Amino acid sequence: MAVRKIIRMGHPNLRIPAQDVPAQAIGSSELTRLVDDMVDTLHDYGGIGLAAPQIDEPLRLAIIEIPGGHSRYGEIEAMPLTVFINPVVEVVDGTTAGYWEGCLSVPGLRGFVERPQHVKVSYTTSQGQPAELELQGFWATVFQHEFDHLDGRLYIDRITDPTKLVFEEEFNRYLAD
Ligand code: NI
């Protein structure tokens, strides 16, 4: 296990769509080690999600862990650490809502992004089983943000009002709550 370096906006590999994880790789020691490294990296940097391309591994793989409780996003439900392999997002209801998003690959900034708030995610578990999750509200935003990384997209691509891209410090001083 190891903390890996998170690559940042400007690194060209963040912009390359990732490859599917091959079925035969699931459960392999290589993939298990990669997931362990992602968990160590997420915990070291602090955050609620990490996609493999952020540590320069071009695979459709992400982890999400939402601590829950009171946060800058309001009162949110916890989600234990979960591994998503080859996830596909389907919009159930296109009604959008906005959140101030941040990203470990775009450190020090916050941006206001509107996304659909009701989605269905189909994915493969770390045990190789097919699974589905229906997500609403803040969770729907988190999943779309993470899985955008697998398509070479960053949240800044989805900011419609460029005045709503700000430094974290100024966000906390002038805009929080
Ligand atoms: Ni991100």
Describe the structure.
The strands form two sheets. Strands 1, 2, 5, 6, 7 and 8 form a six-stranded antiparallel β-sheet that branches. Strands 3-4 form a two-stranded antiparallel sheet. Strand 5 and strand 6 (109-124) form a beta hairpin. By secondary structure, the chain is an alpha+beta fold. The chain has a single domain, classed as Peptide Deformylase. The protein is globular. The chain starts with 28 loop residues before the first helix and ends with a helix. The protein is built from three helices and eight strands. The model has no long low-confidence stretch (mean pLDDT 95). Nickel (II) ion is lined by residues 103-105, 145, 149.
Topology:
Blueprint: H1 29-45, E1 49-51, E2 61-66, E3 69-71, E4 74-76, E5 79-101, E6 109-124, E7 130-136, H2 138-148, E8 165-167, H3 168-175
Antiparallel strand pairs: 1-2, 2-5, 3-4, 5-6, 6-7, 6-8
Bound molecules: nickel (II) ion (NI).
